[in-house]
Amino acid sequence: MKPTASHLVKSQTKASSGIAGFDNITGGGLPLGRTTLLVGGPGSGKTIFALQFLVHGAQDCDEPGIFVAFEETSPRIIANAESFGWKLDELQEKSLYFMDAQPSPDLVQSGDFDLGGMLAALESQIKEMGARRILFDALDILLLLLPDQTAIRREIYRLHEWLSVHEMTGLITLKADGDQTSSISQQPFGFMHFMVDCAVILSHNVEFGVSQRSLRVQKYRGSSFDENESPFLIDWSKGEGTTLVCTSLLDEMSDQVESSSQLQISALVDTWIHLSYLVQAGERNRGLSIVKSRGMAHSNQVRELILSDAGVTLADTYTAGGEVLMGTLRWEKERAERVVHEAAEAAAKLKRVKLEAEEADLEVRLKSLQAELSAKQIEKDLLVRDTLSHEGEISESRTRIQELRGADGETMAGENP
């Protein structure tokens, strides 16, 4: 069944983690103002994941954060994170606070204790710096000091209620027993999975002889999410400003783009370049296409990859209709299309010459007719002029004759028409 997008928790009600792949899986990040549980075995990346969540909030979201450490000391955490380029020393001045809450090895417990004192101190710090995010790293270290399960549950519910009252986006990390994350709900703090609004399970296994970290969102109240396990990478190269290129050999050569390799490296990267072979007409040609490239436009064309003495080149984009061809077949089709195009151009040129000749002939004939018309008009004007002149001369001659013969006025009037 294809999952449908949920409208119960919209993206604006989520706190971005700063981890692009995780934000895609959850539709925006962790639930804002709610509690998230992060569980994993040793080396699975719990502390780094949580620290990046705090750093991203402080640097990019204007949400100061508090790191409550129950296992490692804050100087050691800061030293371990130097390679990621987060500049924690600068953030500590106003937007990121570290609280060391590690139990002393020499601690002698006398009577019951609770989290009330620590929460009161945190409340004062929250008001002072306006914190919106808080991390309780390795909370199980402290909870194991409680005498029984009843006390553990009581303090966990106290913490959960405190986070809800202060509308803090809380993140709690716990250890899993080994890599048995599938049975996490059966472990000592398994009931927390039912209490929190979001639960994320991290694992660190060896697949095909290669160390691989993976992540799965177990639950997310009020929001749709990707329920499948996804690989993730703790990447030092971005902090160093280094461009990392990974290669992966596919088991089968096919003209179809596989969703991923066995190690699922494709799910980790920002840009996925797919190389393939295309066998046509007895030739094996190489093809290159861009499957994805986050944050930038890219071509959807399959381009021919040419390896020659000059190096690696890409053939021009195939613009002919029909199936994309490579090698000799492409050359033959382009040559045939070029011949057809040249023949069409020659035919058009010949027709253009004929039309120009006919146009010139018509222009000559038109000029001749215009000259003949002008001559006829002149001849007509002369004829009219001669006729009028002749009639005038006849009238004058008759009048003169009458005068010479002494004709009276009545006779002259009677003779004139």
UniProtKB/TrEMBL annotation:
Segments forming a coiled coil: 333-386
Domain of life per record: Bacteria
Domain KaiC: 13-263
Source organism per UniProt: Methylotuvimicrobium buryatense (Methylomicrobium buryatense)
Protein name, entry field: KaiC domain-containing protein
Listed transmembrane segments: none
Record GO terms (molecular function): ATP binding
Regions of compositional bias (Basic and acidic residues) in chain numbering: 394-408
Region (Disordered): 394-417
The keyword Coiled coil is assigned to this record: yes
Signal peptide: none
Entry-linked InterPro entries: Circadian_clock_KaiC-rel, KaiC-like_dom, KaiC_dom, P-loop_NTPase
Keyword annotations: Coiled coil
